[in-house]
Amino acid sequence: MSELIEEMPQGQLVYRRLLDEIRTGQMAPGARLREVELAERLGHSRTPVREAIRLLEMDGLVVHQPRQGATIRLLDYAEVMELYEMRAVLEGTAARLASRAANEAELRQLAELNTEFAAAPDERAAAELNRQFHAMLLEAARNRFLARSMRGLQKTMLLLGPTTLMETDRVARAAEEHRQLIDALLDRDGASAEASMRAHMEAAQMVRLRKLRRIERPLED
Question: Which SUPFAM superfamilies does the entry link to (predicted)?
Fold first, then answer.
């Protein structure tokens, strides 16, 4: 038991590393998780790697396939649609609640984050600032049950791979969508805030679907 306790911090470290690789697309859906290869590549023993895979399985990010073992879960088209639909519901609700509960400092912070987001030097920086923007909005909603539901959804969203912000002009368009949301929050207009967020989610969904169609389009001679 003491040996297991000693390995737990390393297991969490490997878990976070694998989550980041899934988020950035370094480990794509369908990829096999071989304990020996991961242990060698990440510089850990097989015990923390095994623990990390178990945690990913608990998150629903890893499944066991016949004759393949542990693999990164592959979402089908319907699941992608359902994910974005649920995200629109949850984040739209967060926007509506934040219009009522957010304080002035939080609204200023949202505006500042969006300014930095619009001027981000690259997609990775933009993605991090976008994450902070949505996290701040969720915090401003002041609803712990909503936050818990959103955290669970965000784990599954990792299976979508690299951010849609990598698409041409998406950062500029997303920044404008953020600004419309901020204007509704400043006006304390809950209905407009929710509608703005839902429109923002639908725009991201359309970019994702176009990307999926490009991937699935058969190669032509």
Answer: GntR ligand-binding domain-like, Winged helix' DNA-binding domain
The per-type count for the chain, helices as H runs and strands as E runs, is 9, 2
Q: Which domains does the chain show, CATH number per domain?
A: 2-72 (1.10.10.10), 77-216 (1.20.120.530)
Instruction: Convert the pLDDT of each residue in 107-162 to its tens digit.
Output: 999 999 999 999 999 988 999 999 999 999 999 999 999 999 999 899 899 898 77
Other Cβ atoms closer than 10 A to 167 = 17
> How confident is the model over 36-49, as pLDDT tens digits?
999 999 999 999 99
User: In the beta sheet, which residues pair with residue 70?
Assistant: 64
Q: At what angle do helices 144-157 and 77-101 cross, to 10 degrees?
A: 150
Q: Which residues contact 55 (CB under 8 A, 6 or more apart)?
A: 11, 12, 15
What are the structure tokens assigned to 136, written together? Answer: 């701040």
| Long-range contacts formed by 177-180: CB under 8 A, 24+ apart | 177/203, 178/110, 178/114, 178/117, 178/133, 179/114
Q: Which two tokens stand for residue 210?
A: 């176009």
Q: Give the model's pLDDT for residue 7.
A: 43
Q: Residue 89 region, left (φ>0) first, then alpha (ψ -120 to 50), else beta? A: alpha
Q: Which residues pair with 64 in a beta bridge?
A: 70
Taking CA atoms, 147 is separated from 99, 132, 137, 155, in Å, by: 16, 14, 10, 13
The per-residue pLDDT for 64 is: 86
